[in-house]
Amino acid sequence: MEQDGTPMSMQKEPLFRLEGSTRQTVLTLLKTNGQMNAGELAKHLQITEMAVRRHLSTLERDGLIAPTIVRQAMGRPTHMFRLTEQAELLFPKNYHVLALDFLEELEDDPETAVIVDRLFEGRKRKLIERYAYRMDGKSLEEKVTELASIQNEGGYMVSLENDENGLVMHEYNCPIAQVANRYQQACQCELSLFRQLLGTDVERTECLAKGGGKCSYRIAGL
Questions:
Q1: What gap in Å lies between CA 56 and CA 51, rounded to an integer?
Q2: What sign results for the dihedral spanned by CA atoms 140, 144, 149, 151?
């Protein structure tokens, strides 16, 4: 099959349109080609190599690409660039679909349905083991601040608010929303996790999975 007189097997252009900013296009080219040098990128982008290097410098500063030196049989070594693990997070991921498929498979079988609850409880135990040491020796107020940091590291977009009834922690994003919307065990385990890490009573007053605009937790003792 031919297109515009050029055999399909001979075409060099990718079968998708590279959209967005030049830096986004650089990331897409590195994603599809594995690694490239500045000269190769300049040819694809049809800009000067100096301009490419400015974009590469910014992307490297932001931790999205990393250079490697490749020695050649003849001539000087060349600097190749590849994506970092951080950059991989910029590309679409469907982990929630995989997780939901597994959970639904277990739930649909009467013999394995009980395992769903055990999985969420097991995840809670792992999180407690992972973060309990960060609460050691801290006052309740310090524990709340530390918990907010932990949740922010996980992408929950946390803020703390003092109102007339005490301290409230708000989460404006839920990184596991697709799972939590289907399985309330996720929300229940989070509430239990907070209570155990803080060592005090915590009340959920609003929940994203139940149609709220955020998840809010009122913390007793403050």
A1: 9
A2: positive
